[in-house]
Amino acid sequence: MIDVYYWGTPNGLKIKLFLEEAGLPYRIIPVDIGKGEQFRPEFLKIAPNNRIPAIVDRDNNFSLMESGAILLYLAEKAGKLLPTDTLKRYRVIEWLMWQMGGPGPMFGQVHHFLKYNRGKAPYAEERYLKEAHRLYSVLDRRLAQHKFVADDYSMADIAIWPWVSRYEWQTVDLHAYANVKRWYTVIARRPAVQRGYKVPKDVGEIPMP
Ligand SMILES: N[C@@H](CCC(=O)N[C@@H](CS)C(=O)NCC(=O)O)C(=O)O
What we know:
This protein is of the alpha+beta class. It has 9 helices and 4 strands; from the N terminus they run βαβαββααααααα. The chain starts with a strand and ends in a 12-residue tail after the last helix. The structure holds glutathione (GSH). Glutathione (GSH) binds next to helix 3.
């Protein structure tokens, strides 16, 4: 059983999508980051960086923060969504790292400046939106040649997809990125994604371009 310390953000969603896809049992423990629950001492013991997601594996009481590390751990535990072949595995890890260093922090800034604080910092809005479009172009070029980012559906797709699912917040028209749109739509239809999106409560339908 995996305890998932969770709030409804793209980084949180990654973990649910993985667990649903891998079929590992889990339970959600909400951490309301709007109310500052990420700073509670009991949460800081599990996640010293005071951010969700974090997990505790109740099979061995091992705790872990950072969504990329959590996905790698869960993939090894389940033996799924990460190839055993070394070169294929590193292709997945490459795109996982791309997500952790690119769309994660950059789209996060787009949400901060364009969705929540529009008009306060035009330079920041322009800078981060431009970078978001650059990243969408990188992904689009990759997906022009590959069905999924690392050929077979993998933890790398699971890491990236939740950030793209906020394309409306980012003011990004997915029709401008035909390959991303195709990939996004295919993944959105997966039963595990449909299930994971609505745990622990129904947050409405997945946005579709
Ligand atoms: N690199 C971290 C980022 C985690 C992160 O930024 N979590 C956000 C929600 S998506 C959070 O907990 N924010 C709380 C805060 O800013 O205090 C990961 O991938 O797990």
